[in-house]
Amino acid sequence: MNQVIDVLLKRKSIRAYEQREISPEIKAQILQATLRAPTAGNMMLYSIVDVIDQSLKDKLAKTCDNQPFIAKAPLLWLFLADYQRWQDYFIACGVEQICAAKGQPMRKPSEGDLFLACCDALIAAQNAVVAAEAFGLGSCYIGDIMEQYETHKELFKLPKYVFPICLLCFGYPTEQQQNRQQSDRFDEKFIVFENQYHQLDKQEFDEMFSQRHKQVFNGRDNIEGSVNVGQAMYRRKFSAEFSTEMTRSVRIMLKEWTGD
Ligand SMILES: Cc1cc2nc3c(=O)[nH]c(=O)nc-3n(C[C@H](O)[C@H](O)[C@H](O)COP(=O)(O)O)c2cc1C
To answer: What angle do CA 35, 68, 16 make, to 5 degrees?
Structure first.
Protein backbone atom coordinates (compact mmCIF):
# COMPACT_ATOMS: atom_id res chain seq x y z
CA MET A 1 0.00 0.00 0.00
CA ASN A 2 1.06 3.60 -0.53
CA GLN A 3 3.09 4.60 2.54
CA VAL A 4 1.29 7.89 3.18
CA ILE A 5 -2.11 6.18 3.03
CA ASP A 6 -0.82 3.45 5.31
CA VAL A 7 0.29 6.04 7.90
CA LEU A 8 -3.09 7.80 7.69
CA LEU A 9 -5.12 4.59 8.00
CA LYS A 10 -3.14 3.23 10.95
CA ARG A 11 -3.05 6.42 13.04
CA LYS A 12 -4.78 6.53 16.40
CA SER A 13 -4.52 8.96 19.29
CA ILE A 14 -1.73 8.06 21.70
CA ARG A 15 -2.05 9.10 25.34
CA ALA A 16 0.83 7.25 27.05
CA TYR A 17 4.43 7.70 25.97
CA GLU A 18 7.75 6.01 26.47
CA GLN A 19 10.06 8.36 28.34
CA ARG A 20 12.34 8.43 25.34
CA GLU A 21 13.74 11.60 23.85
CA ILE A 22 12.70 12.65 20.37
CA SER A 23 15.91 13.46 18.50
CA PRO A 24 16.46 17.07 17.38
CA GLU A 25 16.71 15.83 13.75
CA ILE A 26 13.29 14.18 13.87
CA LYS A 27 11.78 17.18 15.64
CA ALA A 28 13.22 19.47 12.97
CA GLN A 29 11.76 17.34 10.17
CA ILE A 30 8.32 17.29 11.81
CA LEU A 31 8.52 21.07 12.10
CA GLN A 32 9.51 21.44 8.44
CA ALA A 33 6.54 19.28 7.38
CA THR A 34 4.28 21.31 9.68
CA LEU A 35 5.34 24.62 8.18
CA ARG A 36 4.71 23.32 4.64
CA ALA A 37 0.99 23.00 5.38
CA PRO A 38 -1.37 24.95 3.13
CA THR A 39 -2.13 28.37 4.55
CA ALA A 40 -4.73 30.96 3.60
CA GLY A 41 -3.18 33.63 1.36
CA ASN A 42 0.24 32.19 2.23
CA MET A 43 -0.01 34.30 5.39
CA MET A 44 0.79 31.58 7.97
CA LEU A 45 -1.87 32.84 10.34
CA TYR A 46 -0.57 30.75 13.22
CA SER A 47 2.26 30.45 15.69
CA ILE A 48 3.58 27.41 17.49
CA VAL A 49 4.90 27.40 21.03
CA ASP A 50 7.22 24.51 21.80
CA VAL A 51 6.41 23.92 25.46
CA ILE A 52 9.64 22.63 26.97
CA ASP A 53 9.41 23.95 30.52
CA GLN A 54 8.15 21.10 32.74
CA SER A 55 6.37 23.51 35.08
CA LEU A 56 4.34 24.80 32.10
CA LYS A 57 3.53 21.22 31.07
CA ASP A 58 2.38 20.51 34.63
CA LYS A 59 0.15 23.58 34.59
CA LEU A 60 -1.38 22.64 31.22
CA ALA A 61 -2.14 19.14 32.51
CA LYS A 62 -4.35 20.86 35.10
CA THR A 63 -5.81 23.75 33.10
CA CYS A 64 -6.75 21.48 30.19
CA ASP A 65 -9.43 19.64 32.17
CA ASN A 66 -7.02 17.66 34.34
CA GLN A 67 -5.38 15.33 31.86
CA PRO A 68 -2.14 14.17 33.55
CA PHE A 69 -0.71 12.57 30.40
CA ILE A 70 -0.12 16.08 29.00
CA ALA A 71 2.63 16.62 31.60
CA LYS A 72 4.31 13.38 30.52
CA ALA A 73 4.42 14.12 26.79
CA PRO A 74 8.06 14.33 25.65
CA LEU A 75 7.02 16.89 23.02
CA LEU A 76 4.23 19.40 23.48
CA TRP A 77 3.30 21.98 20.86
CA LEU A 78 0.76 24.71 21.36
CA PHE A 79 -0.90 25.87 18.12
CA LEU A 80 -2.07 29.46 18.15
CA ALA A 81 -4.46 31.06 15.69
CA ASP A 82 -2.51 34.27 15.15
CA TYR A 83 -3.62 37.48 13.48
CA GLN A 84 -1.46 39.60 15.78
CA ARG A 85 1.63 39.25 13.56
CA TRP A 86 -0.18 40.55 10.46
CA GLN A 87 -2.01 43.26 12.39
CA ASP A 88 1.33 44.47 13.77
CA TYR A 89 2.89 44.23 10.30
CA PHE A 90 0.05 46.25 8.74
CA ILE A 91 0.67 48.96 11.33
CA ALA A 92 4.45 48.78 10.82
CA CYS A 93 3.82 49.22 7.07
CA GLY A 94 1.88 52.43 7.58
CA VAL A 95 -1.53 50.99 6.67
CA GLU A 96 -3.16 53.15 9.38
CA GLN A 97 -1.85 56.32 7.69
CA ILE A 98 -2.94 55.14 4.24
CA CYS A 99 -6.45 54.47 5.55
CA ALA A 100 -6.55 57.82 7.40
CA ALA A 101 -5.50 59.63 4.22
CA LYS A 102 -8.50 58.06 2.50
CA GLY A 103 -10.72 58.97 5.44
CA GLN A 104 -11.31 55.32 6.26
CA PRO A 105 -10.81 53.56 9.58
CA MET A 106 -8.30 50.70 9.47
CA ARG A 107 -10.15 47.40 9.58
CA LYS A 108 -9.24 45.23 12.55
CA PRO A 109 -9.10 41.42 12.66
CA SER A 110 -12.68 40.21 12.90
CA GLU A 111 -14.61 36.93 13.33
CA GLY A 112 -13.90 35.75 9.76
CA ASP A 113 -10.19 36.39 10.25
CA LEU A 114 -10.26 34.38 13.48
CA PHE A 115 -11.89 31.42 11.70
CA LEU A 116 -9.30 31.60 8.92
CA ALA A 117 -6.45 31.71 11.45
CA CYS A 118 -7.97 28.71 13.27
CA CYS A 119 -8.12 26.83 9.93
CA ASP A 120 -4.44 27.62 9.29
CA ALA A 121 -3.35 26.54 12.78
CA LEU A 122 -5.32 23.28 12.68
CA ILE A 123 -4.17 22.35 9.19
CA ALA A 124 -0.56 22.88 10.28
CA ALA A 125 -1.23 20.83 13.41
CA GLN A 126 -2.54 17.93 11.36
CA ASN A 127 0.58 18.04 9.18
CA ALA A 128 2.55 17.67 12.43
CA VAL A 129 0.42 14.68 13.46
CA VAL A 130 0.98 12.90 10.15
CA ALA A 131 4.69 13.71 10.04
CA ALA A 132 5.14 12.46 13.61
CA GLU A 133 3.25 9.28 12.79
CA ALA A 134 5.58 8.69 9.84
CA PHE A 135 8.46 8.65 12.36
CA GLY A 136 6.66 6.16 14.63
CA LEU A 137 5.61 8.88 17.05
CA GLY A 138 2.11 8.96 18.49
CA SER A 139 0.17 12.13 19.16
CA CYS A 140 -2.98 13.43 20.77
CA TYR A 141 -4.90 16.66 20.28
CA ILE A 142 -6.00 18.53 23.38
CA GLY A 143 -9.07 20.62 22.60
CA ASP A 144 -9.39 21.67 26.23
CA ILE A 145 -6.72 24.30 25.58
CA MET A 146 -9.65 26.48 24.43
CA GLU A 147 -10.75 26.58 28.07
CA GLN A 148 -9.37 28.98 30.69
CA TYR A 149 -8.57 31.67 28.11
CA GLU A 150 -7.45 34.20 30.72
CA THR A 151 -5.04 31.74 32.38
CA HIS A 152 -3.49 30.60 29.09
CA LYS A 153 -3.23 34.19 27.87
CA GLU A 154 -1.24 35.05 30.97
CA LEU A 155 0.80 31.83 30.93
CA PHE A 156 1.97 32.26 27.31
CA LYS A 157 1.91 36.08 27.13
CA LEU A 158 -0.66 36.08 24.35
CA PRO A 159 -1.64 39.41 22.82
CA LYS A 160 -5.19 40.27 21.76
CA TYR A 161 -5.31 38.62 18.33
CA VAL A 162 -3.82 35.27 19.34
CA PHE A 163 -5.97 32.33 20.41
CA PRO A 164 -4.77 28.87 21.51
CA ILE A 165 -6.80 26.59 19.25
CA CYS A 166 -5.13 23.26 19.99
CA LEU A 167 -2.39 21.61 21.94
CA LEU A 168 -0.58 18.56 20.56
CA CYS A 169 1.14 15.92 22.68
CA PHE A 170 3.74 13.73 20.97
CA GLY A 171 5.80 10.77 22.07
CA TYR A 172 6.76 7.21 21.26
CA PRO A 173 3.74 5.04 22.15
CA THR A 174 3.99 2.59 25.03
CA GLU A 175 3.49 -1.06 24.07
CA GLN A 176 -0.01 -1.00 25.60
CA GLN A 177 -0.94 1.99 23.42
CA GLN A 178 0.61 0.39 20.36
CA ASN A 179 -1.55 -2.71 20.85
CA ARG A 180 -4.72 -0.78 21.65
CA GLN A 181 -7.45 -1.11 19.04
CA GLN A 182 -8.21 1.80 16.76
CA SER A 183 -11.47 3.57 17.53
CA ASP A 184 -14.35 3.03 15.14
CA ARG A 185 -15.74 5.52 12.64
CA PHE A 186 -19.31 6.05 11.48
CA ASP A 187 -20.18 4.53 8.11
CA GLU A 188 -19.33 6.96 5.35
CA LYS A 189 -22.91 7.03 4.09
CA PHE A 190 -23.84 9.07 7.20
CA ILE A 191 -20.98 11.49 6.72
CA VAL A 192 -20.47 11.98 2.98
CA PHE A 193 -23.29 13.25 0.77
CA GLU A 194 -23.66 14.04 -2.90
CA ASN A 195 -24.36 17.60 -3.91
CA GLN A 196 -26.36 18.62 -0.85
CA TYR A 197 -26.62 18.10 2.86
CA HIS A 198 -28.78 15.28 4.15
CA GLN A 199 -30.32 15.60 7.61
CA LEU A 200 -30.58 12.22 9.30
CA ASP A 201 -33.84 10.77 10.68
CA LYS A 202 -34.41 8.48 13.67
CA GLN A 203 -34.20 5.31 11.62
CA GLU A 204 -30.87 6.37 10.12
CA PHE A 205 -29.55 7.29 13.57
CA ASP A 206 -30.50 3.82 14.87
CA GLU A 207 -28.44 2.27 12.08
CA MET A 208 -25.59 4.76 12.43
CA PHE A 209 -25.20 4.13 16.16
CA SER A 210 -26.05 0.40 16.38
CA GLN A 211 -22.41 -0.71 16.42
CA ARG A 212 -21.29 2.03 18.80
CA HIS A 213 -24.19 1.28 21.14
CA LYS A 214 -22.97 -2.32 21.45
CA GLN A 215 -19.41 -1.15 22.12
CA VAL A 216 -20.31 1.54 24.64
CA PHE A 217 -23.01 -0.35 26.53
CA ASN A 218 -21.37 -3.78 26.26
CA GLY A 219 -24.53 -5.64 27.35
CA ARG A 220 -25.57 -3.11 30.06
CA ASP A 221 -29.07 -1.63 29.80
CA ASN A 222 -27.94 1.80 31.08
CA ILE A 223 -24.85 3.79 32.05
CA GLU A 224 -25.55 6.09 34.98
CA GLY A 225 -29.14 6.39 33.79
CA SER A 226 -28.36 6.91 30.09
CA VAL A 227 -29.99 4.30 27.88
CA ASN A 228 -28.42 5.20 24.53
CA VAL A 229 -25.27 6.76 23.09
CA GLY A 230 -26.94 10.14 22.56
CA GLN A 231 -27.94 10.43 26.23
CA ALA A 232 -24.54 9.20 27.40
CA MET A 233 -22.60 11.60 25.16
CA TYR A 234 -24.86 14.52 26.05
CA ARG A 235 -24.15 13.90 29.74
CA ARG A 236 -20.47 12.95 29.45
CA LYS A 237 -19.37 15.50 26.83
CA PHE A 238 -21.88 18.05 25.56
CA SER A 239 -23.25 19.22 28.91
CA ALA A 240 -20.17 18.38 30.95
CA GLU A 241 -18.36 21.01 33.01
CA PHE A 242 -15.51 21.29 30.52
CA SER A 243 -18.00 22.19 27.75
CA THR A 244 -19.52 24.94 29.85
CA GLU A 245 -16.04 26.25 30.61
CA MET A 246 -15.04 26.09 26.94
CA THR A 247 -18.09 28.13 25.96
CA ARG A 248 -17.36 30.72 28.66
CA SER A 249 -13.70 30.93 27.72
CA VAL A 250 -14.32 31.27 23.95
CA ARG A 251 -16.95 33.96 24.59
CA ILE A 252 -14.44 36.02 26.59
CA MET A 253 -11.87 35.64 23.82
CA LEU A 254 -14.41 36.60 21.12
CA LYS A 255 -15.39 39.69 23.07
CA GLU A 256 -11.76 40.73 23.29
CA TRP A 257 -11.00 39.84 19.65
CA THR A 258 -13.98 41.68 18.17
CA GLY A 259 -14.02 44.47 20.74
CA ASP A 260 -17.80 44.01 21.20
C1 LIG B 1 -10.11 18.93 18.17
C2 LIG B 1 -9.78 17.71 18.98
C3 LIG B 1 -9.69 17.80 20.36
C4 LIG B 1 -9.36 16.68 21.12
N5 LIG B 1 -9.19 16.81 22.48
C6 LIG B 1 -8.79 15.75 23.20
C7 LIG B 1 -8.51 15.89 24.58
O8 LIG B 1 -8.62 16.98 25.17
N9 LIG B 1 -8.10 14.80 25.27
C10 LIG B 1 -7.94 13.58 24.67
O11 LIG B 1 -7.56 12.62 25.34
N12 LIG B 1 -8.20 13.41 23.34
C13 LIG B 1 -8.60 14.46 22.61
N14 LIG B 1 -8.81 14.33 21.26
C15 LIG B 1 -8.62 13.02 20.61
C16 LIG B 1 -9.96 12.37 20.29
O17 LIG B 1 -10.54 11.92 21.49
C18 LIG B 1 -9.73 11.22 19.30
O19 LIG B 1 -9.23 11.74 18.11
C20 LIG B 1 -11.02 10.45 19.03
O21 LIG B 1 -11.48 9.79 20.18
C22 LIG B 1 -10.83 9.41 17.93
O23 LIG B 1 -9.82 8.51 18.28
P24 LIG B 1 -8.52 8.31 17.39
O25 LIG B 1 -7.85 9.64 17.23
O26 LIG B 1 -7.67 7.35 18.17
O27 LIG B 1 -8.97 7.76 16.08
C28 LIG B 1 -9.15 15.43 20.48
C29 LIG B 1 -9.24 15.35 19.08
C30 LIG B 1 -9.52 16.47 18.34
C31 LIG B 1 -9.56 16.36 16.84
So the answer is: 65
